[in-house]
Every structure is written in structure tokens, then in C-alpha cells.
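BUG-365 | component: ligand-complex export | severity: low

The export step for adenosine-5'-diphosphate jobs runs without errors, but we want the raw record kept on the ticket for reference. Input record follows.
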Amino acid sequence: MARQRIINGDDESRKTSASSDEPPRKPPAPPAIEFRPDDEKHDDELRPQKLDDVVGQRKAVERLRIMLDAAKKRNEPLGHLLFDGPPGLGKTTFATVIPKELGVDFQIASAPALTAPKDVLPYLTNASFGSVLFLDEIHRLPPAVEEFLYPVMEDFRVDIALGEGMNARTINMPLKKFTVIGATTRSGLLTAPLRDRFVNRLHLDFYDDDDLAEIVDRNARKLRTEIESDASAEISKRSRGTPRKANNLLYWCRDYADSRAKGRISVDVAKLALEMIEVDHVGLDELDRKYLLTLINIFAGGPAGLTAIAHSMSCPSDTLEDEIEPFLLRVGFLQRTPRGRVVTSAALAHLGIAIPEAPSQGTLF
Ligand code: ADP
């Protein structure tokens, strides 16, 4: 029977607290309707339990099937595996499905909560042969913990230093062979020694609309909610390629339908529900528009540095970089240049803002 243990990380505080170099600021006024498309509270309820239930990400699924098959045939633990990609695309989902497929124990910890080697030690000593230890947000491991993990991942050995000075000595403790699965939204921040200790890396990309529509349909069935196929398509179009957002929009549409439309999500009901929370037809929400309008109105469209934009918006730069910018870049509303972020004419057209005319080239003579 798989075992699960959760260290309660500081996820929520991370998402709302400014980085340490930012002065304390007044929190922005709450929107008229409190809806957070990135809310993680429904994740566990709708998370696929088997690899067969995972929709899309075909390349990652295929490679994973080969890895799982090989590990099972050799009766060896799976090699350490790193998932990277923007939030809400399925890193935790894959990590939880793997031990179920292998029938092994599972432990989960949030890297920022592991402040010292002693915090990670119980996970290591508890790890049974072939089990999985999932480290979420692995780019946020403190350096001391990261270094402590090097011999663990390489030789399945813990080095414990005892005493100081002349009397100092190191005890080596052998561990059972197990698998570390890491997840990160910022693979670029991983140090080379840590990255190199992962035998396999799987990159998760945004989903296409058809895959998201399938996720919405399946989850509507799980929630016993009647939904028109056009309505699933409408929700998926506005979910920015991200299953977590699709799920959250589905929950909102279900609430709206239960309250105003006898529980049935038709395409018109979906449109009205999504208009009410100001998610537009390409999926931009309040915060995305605020980002673009800050760049346009305060920085004349850019180039502007991320920190300057974050200060102007009273929003942590991490949130902007992880949750706002990847999609704006993907739909071509934003460019990242060496001099800073620049808004594109496509974004201006989308927001209905006239594109400023290029200054006329005055003649010199
Ligand atoms: P991440 O760890 O990358 O932030 P999660 O794995 O927590 O994202 O995914 C968020 C939610 O999105 C999950 O609870 C699950 O319901 C849904 N989801 C993610 N990926 C898939 C997928 N490939 N197929 C079906 N649902 C998915």
C-alpha cells in the first residue's frame, strides 16, 4: 500500500509575499468576485490516478512508460527524474502516478520547507527499496540541504558530520536504493551538480485546446455535472493551456450553472460565467491585463525590468515570472529582450489600444 506524507510547505505565503528586497506594501484591493484561476485547493480531488488517465503530454507519457517498463523488468528503482514546466501542467500529477504504477511507497516534501539536513533525514531513512521521494519546487532547496543530497542521490549514502575541530569525524549511513523525483518551474535556477544527478528529465509544455477540452469533459463527469461539448471547448480555450486553470474555471462554471441555470453548463452559461470573472476569450484574467496595462501606461510599452514592473504592480516578481509571463510570451503579447520586457502590437490590438504611430523620420536638411 502506498504511503504518503506531506510536509506543509509555505506555498501560500510564498505566492503572496514579496521578495525580501522589496519594501512592504499595501495589499491590492480584492477583486469584486474572489476567483483565483491558479488556486490549488481542487487539485487532489481531480488528479488522475493512473498513467492511462493522464491526458496529453504524449512525448512525456511515452518516455515515462519506457522508463517504468524497464525499471519493472529489471526489478530496479527508477532513475532519479526531474519534471520541469510552468505551474499547473501536471508535474505533481506525474510524480504521484509513478509510484502507483510501480506499486511502491511514496513520500512528498516541499523543498522550501526543508531548511536543514535534519529536516530531510527522516524521509531518507524511511525510504524503502524502490520507493519515490517527491521534492516539489526543488530549485528552492537551501544549499546545505542540496549538498547533503549529493551523496544520497549518487551513492545512496548519508554523510553525517559529528563533533568539531580535532574530534570531528564523519559517519556514513547506507540507505536503501530509492528514486528522487524533483519538480521545478525554473530549471534554469538548478545548480549543475544537482541537475546532473537526475538521470532523466521530462519537460511539460502547455496543452492544446483539444486535450484541455477532454480534461474538462472527464472532470465534469467526475463532478457529476452536465456540460455541452461546446461549453468544454469554450472553457478550454480560456484556460491558457493549463489543466489547473481549466479545472478551476470548470468549478466556477458549475457554481454559476447550479445557481442560475439548473445545473447544466451550456456554452451560453459558460460564456456568461467566465465574463463575470473577467476571463476573456483568449484566457487573460485581471492580473494579466494589469501586467500589460502597467507595462503600457507606466513604462510606455517597455523595455522595462521585471522588478520595476513587480514594484509598480505590488506583486511578487516570482508570481509574474512563473504565472503571468510564460503565457503572454506564448501568445505573442510580450517579448523578453536583453533590455527588458516589451509589449507587442498584438497585445495592444487585443486590449483595444490604438497602436502609436511611428514617429516620422524628420529630414535633416
Ligand atoms: P503542477 O504540479 O505542475 O503545478 P499539478 O500536477 O498539480 O500541476 O496539476 C494541477 C491539476 O491539473 C491536477 O490536479 C489535475 O487535476 C490536472 N492535471 C494536470 N495534468 C493533467 C493531465 N495530464 N491530465 C489530466 N489532468 C491533469
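Assignee comment: Attached the raw record above. The longest strand covers residues 157-162.
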